[in-house]
Amino acid sequence: KKIILIAGEIDERSYLSELIELSQKLNDNFVLVLHSRRKIDLQIKESGKIVLSNVPVGYNELDALYSSAYIGLALYRISPNGLEGENLRRIGKSSGKANNFLKMGVPIIMTRLPFFEYIEKRFSCGICINEIKEIINAINVISNNFEVAQQVVKHIHFHIIPRKKDEGKIKFVR
């Protein structure tokens, strides 16, 4: 089966309940793997469409984990009141998830955030979604255009450099 992977911090802020429900609608060729970096108590009905991996991997094993995916997920629930802060609203907690998938050339389905929109448009490396219910369609689009979604740029990574508020706007350099 082809792996749809979400890894790292997995909880309701990353749509855990919705992903469990959505997994049952996956085509039989896919399995959703929830790889948590810490133990989470979760009872998942065995269906062959979802797997919970509660065993953290070492830093030196991250590339193998992320490259095992056919499609990666970088999903962040943004609250309407904006209490999560500017970092989450712009880049998804500095999204190690997205960076790791990009590094391995794995297409990603991402929450529509400014940074993710930029990499989607610039590198054609996945799809931004507005709502979690769009995931099944996004999987189909990526599957039907896999060579394009797998990235023209085989290697990409970003350095996140802390800045002070008065340092002006961030500029992207090509």
What tags apply to this protein structure?
174 residues; alpha/beta; 6 strands; globular
Total strands: 6
Order of helices and strands: EHEEHEHHEHEHH
Mean pLDDT: 81
Radius of gyration (CA) equals 16 Å
Kindly estimate the percentage of residues that lie in beta strands according to DSSP: 15-25%
Structural class: alpha/beta
Uncertain regions: pLDDT < 50 for 5+ in a row?
none
- How far is the first residue's CA from the last residue's CA? 37 Å
Query: How would you name the oligomeric state of the polypeptide chains in this document?
Result: single chain
Strand order of the largest sheet: 3-2-1-4-5-6
Taking the sheet with the most strands, its summary is: 6 strands, parallel
> So what's the overall shape?
globular
Roughly how much helix do the residues carry, as a percent range?
25-40%
How many helices? The count is 7
Task: Describe the structure in your own words.
There is one protein chain. The protein contains 7 helices and 6 strands. The protein is an alpha/beta fold. The longest helix is centred in the C-terminal third of the chain and has 10 residues, at 114-123. A 6-stranded parallel sheet has the order 3-2-1-4-5-6, with helices on both faces. The radius of gyration is 16 Å and the shape is globular. The model has no long low-confidence stretch (mean pLDDT 81).
